[in-house]
């Protein structure tokens, strides 16, 4: 007797959440349904997959190994379905796209009207998560494609580069670096930057934009969004680096701050990524063209 894909999906959800209630919610089933599914899977495999207590859940070593294998099986099953869908017509059915928070809000709303016009039979589902979570979701089959920023470790994925995203320095109006035509790495030497909290790839990318400048992060504050960063700068609490995509989309509009282009900064590269086993590579190439066109039409 073989495990069902549903049982494997329950195990992966439990591995991700380490909580029966939260895992059940993510699978859109009741907690008892998920718990019974895990017990049935244990009976089929003849091993204990999870250690249960009143307050916590831990996977056994074999449970962790089976969960990792289950992720790949679920991803392969998803690709099998998509391969079959390709024969029923180009780009129809469901597309589950993920994007990082420093790209999604500024690009996806501009893209959606174009996507709906170009692919009327496509049902589009969007998730916004941090890079590591997006890559894990892609490899597990929870997502079909993701919008992320490089450099980042992306072994096992195919990518198409969409555009380079440069930075501008955002400062209070009375800052010594305000109102300049351009700022270089030497101008940032010794400066402390207000940045996003750790876990956001932009936090690492901003610090490495000028490796020779030795700029550091202001440890007294870490933001969860670019909107918060902009507000902090406008209130005179520090300076930051903002991606050009967000500026062109209007993130600084209505705030009293100064912007200056950064000369010689290493840009982040925005890419569309998917699994190498996916049968939708041709469709993703079409989607990439739509994203590039939407970026080009943003006012600069």
Structure explained in plain terms:
With 300 residues, the protein is of the alpha/beta class. The protein has 3 domains: 5-83, Arc Repressor Mutant, subunit A (Orthogonal Bundle); 95-162 and 270-296, D-Maltodextrin-Binding Protein, domain 2 (3-Layer(aba) Sandwich); 167-261, 3-Layer(aba) Sandwich (D-Maltodextrin-Binding Protein, domain 2). The protein has 10 helices and 12 strands. The strands form 4 sheets. The protein has a 5-stranded mixed beta sheet, sandwiched between helices. Strands 10-7-11 form a 3-stranded antiparallel beta sheet. The termini are far apart. The model has no long low-confidence stretch (mean pLDDT 88).
Q: Which features characterize this protein?
A:
single chain; 300 residues; alpha/beta; Arc Repressor Mutant, subunit A; D-Maltodextrin-Binding Protein, domain 2; five-stranded mixed beta sheet; three-stranded antiparallel beta sheet; 10 helices; 12 strands
What's this entry about, in short?
By secondary structure, the chain is α/β, with parallel strands linked by helices. The chain has helices spanning 5-17, 20-27, 31-45, 61-85, 104-118, 131-140, 201-207, 226-234, 244-248, 281-296, and strands at residues 50-52, 57-59, 93-99, 122-128, 145-150, 157-165, 167-171, 192-196, 216-223, 240-243, 258-261, 268-275.
């Amino acid at each position: 007797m073989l495990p069902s894909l549903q049982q494997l999906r329950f195990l992966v959800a439990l591995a991700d959440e380490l909580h029966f209630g939260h895992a059940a919610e993510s699978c859109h089933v009741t907690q008892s349904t998920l718990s019974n599914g895990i017990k049935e899977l244990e009976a089929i495999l003849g091993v204990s997959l999870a250690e249960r207590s009143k307050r916590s859940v831990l996977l056994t070593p074999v449970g962790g190994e089976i969960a990792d294998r289950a992720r790949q099986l679920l991803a392969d099953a998803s690709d099998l379905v998509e391969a079959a869908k390709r024969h029923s017509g180009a780009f129809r059915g469901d597309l589950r796209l993920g994007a990082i928070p420093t790209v999604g809000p500024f690009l996806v709303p501009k893209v959606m009207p174009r996507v709906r016009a170009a692919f009327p039979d496509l049902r589009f589902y969007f998730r916004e998560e941090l890079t590591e979570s997006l890559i894990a979701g892609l490899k597990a089959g929870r997502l079909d494609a993701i919008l992320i920023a490089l450099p980042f470790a992306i072994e096992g994925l195919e990518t198409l580069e969409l555009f380079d995203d440069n930075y501008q320095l955002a400062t209070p109006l009375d800052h010594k670096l305000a109102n300049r035509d351009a700022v270089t790495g030497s101008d940032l030497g010794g400066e402390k930057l207000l940045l996003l909290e750790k876990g956001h790839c932009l936090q690492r990318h901003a610090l490495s934009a000028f490796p020779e400048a030795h700029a550091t992060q202001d440890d007294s504050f870490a933001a969860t969004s670019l909107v918060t960063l902009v507000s902090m700068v406008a209130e005179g609490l520090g300076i930051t680096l903002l991606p050009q995509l967000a500026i062109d989309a209007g993130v600084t509009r209505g705030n009293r701050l100064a912007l200056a282009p950064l000369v010689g900064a290493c840009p982040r590269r925005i890419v569309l990524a998917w699994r190498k086993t996916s049968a939708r590579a041709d469709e993703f190439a079409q989607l990439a063209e739509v994203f590039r066109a939407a970026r080009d039409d943003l006012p600069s």
